Hints:
5 helices; about 35% helix; seven-stranded antiparallel sheet; four-stranded antiparallel sheet; alpha+beta; disordered N terminus; 15 strands; single chain
Amino acid sequence: STASSDHSCGRSMSISDSLRLIEGAIDEDLQQRLIEFTEDALEQGRQGSLLGKTYTAPPNKWAVRLQSREMLQFGIFTHSNRVQDVGVLPMPPILTELVQVLVKAGLFSTQEPPTTCTINVYQVGMWLPPHVDSMDFARPFCTVSLLSAQDVVFGDEISGESGNWAGPIRMTMPVGSVLCVDAPAAGPQCKHAVCLNTARRISLTLRRLSEETLDRFEQQKIEKQLHREQAGARRREIKMANKQAKKLGKLSS
């Protein structure tokens, strides 16, 4: 029992050591501009004016139990934490500016800055269940919090339901803060869950696709191109064969 307790305590310390909360990292001017950008993009998304799947509304099956949020995704699309190479807008200038702030703060290297951003907009009462961000993203990743301070729970085991979560580590993310999440807190064993929001909140999670993921996407593009070329060649062969068959038919008659 003591050994198990020591292991659990050591594990919690290890997870805690891989979490870095920087309060006041985003100044009020940039916060306000990020909020205005998000509100404008939300409005465009709701009207269907944004490219592809840049905007997604919560599915009804989740929305009815408040397990949800509106999402804006730039640079890459994820669905249920699965990365998919489908159409979304690239990173706009204001998010590139935010990346530069995080790089200057030493949270990312200049050689490997975040290339994607997921903006989550939570209404009062919304929450997210225990999950692990896709391992297609490199670690660390960072989350910026705007509008209200809310809690997140980390741990290998998270208990509770409907946003009322309990786990080894519970953190409050203040307005204007950045939470940097590295291994082991970033998974795959350790999960995190967003607690029930007591006020409206905007979070911006900035991540970089891993080299393995980029290589996989590149290979998929090559395979798709090859498939298109092969399909085109087959169509041309069939067309030629039909022409020849018609010619032979005319000759034989």
